Amino acid sequence: MQTLERNYSDKWKEYERDFDHAVAEEVIRDVAYYRTLLSNIIMIGAPNEDWVLVDTSLRQYHDRILHACEERYGTKPPKAIILTHGHFDHAGSAKKLAEHWQVPVYIHEAEMDYVTGKKAYPPGDPTVGGGLISLLSAAFPTKPVHLEKMIKPLPNDGTIPHLKEWRYIETPGHTPGHISLYREKDQIFIAGDAISTEKPESSWSVIFPFQHIYGPPAYFTEDWMTAEQSVKKIAALNPSVIIAGHGIPMHGEMMQKELKELATNFIDQAIPKHKRH
Ligand SMILES: [Zn+2]
Ligand SMILES: [Zn+2]
What we know:
single chain, alpha/beta, Metallo-beta-lactamase, Chain A, 6-stranded mixed sheet, 8 helices, binds zinc ion, RibonucZ/Hydroxyglut_hydro, MBL fold metallo-hydrolase
């Protein structure tokens, strides 16, 4: 265990120095992502066009996120920041970035209390074990995310401000107001933590990512039964590409097959054994 932890902290330090590599990778012409060590941020919009940022990683990453965004869009700020949910590994840099760009941050109504200091998420579940935890313990914030001044609830009709072609899909379970983003014309799906394309509980996946479809990160998932319904909802949309909060984007037959399997066998595949009732 100690060796592993040392590996993580070495990797972390190396990453900290790796500022110049903060560059987004294009998934298609108008969707790109930037993978921080722990979680992804997604940029929707082609270079030179209006754009929107989805999720903001940990608070330690705001300068690197800014670097990656400026590489793609110059100094043109996004129209808004959309959060899939309020966990600190997705909302961590929202405040600094929103202040820098002077733009609003949107989140589902049911998440509002968690990013305005009114409610706290339940603490992570250490019994699920694994790699994410040793990494997270290094990054865990001492204070909750406070976005009172810039946060707004998403419209409740599924539309997303500044993203005409996109809809948000309610995918609760991991958190009460978790959302994913979906564009029907090319079936691109931005999953947040409703599913993952790496297994965050695996000690090695952060360093050696393998692409597979997994359930939501177990450490922070609150309601497994609701999470299962959300995965079934995602599978029914039959996405062509999935960009999850954790892991490298996936597309194609293997992804679609694994997504269907996960939706069918969610209890066995996603829920940690000792949590199945
Ligand atoms: Zn989460
Ligand atoms: Zn996450």
